[in-house]
Amino acid sequence: MSDERVGVYPGTFDPPTLGHVDIVKRALRVVDRLVVGVAVNAGKGPMFTIDERVAMVEESVRQELGDALAARVQVTPFRNLLMHFTVSQGAQVIVRGLRAVSDFEYEFQMAGMNARLEPEVETVFLMASEGIQFIASKLVKEIFLLGGDVTPFVPANVAQRLEDHISRQQTATG
Description:
By secondary structure, the protein is of the alpha/beta class. It contains six helices and five strands. It has one domain: 3-Layer(aba) Sandwich (Rossmann fold), CATH 3.40.50.620. 47% of the residues lie in helices and 18% in strands. It has a five-stranded parallel beta sheet, sandwiched between helices. α2 runs antiparallel to α6.
């Protein structure tokens, strides 16, 4: 058995934000290898396809963290139960980011359920870093769709993908 500590950081990442990248960077202090699990989650009505979201997370991690840290991150889509995905990745830890007390209530329930499903997997909560606690993908999309500047909230590659997405929509609707 390997001594490597593997973590899974799950989410929809629609789109990835600087808050997500911050949690990835800080999770790498806790685990040797991090699997960023990009959830299909069609119920949330994502703006971007699963392939686009995977690519954006990969690009964001490389761009913001550099090659050395990015080499310890694997980005993988998943559509099954988080605990099944976690076990399939050989992970012992689920990493969750918390922005506010309201996040904790939901995450606390999920951690309890996950512990019942797979007692050998621990959930670790990381508080959002000061100055980015307010960033949420939902708010980034809303600001962007209403013509606001989202560059302070997302990596440069994501800002470009948002622009490209709107351009494609405008071309399609003619």
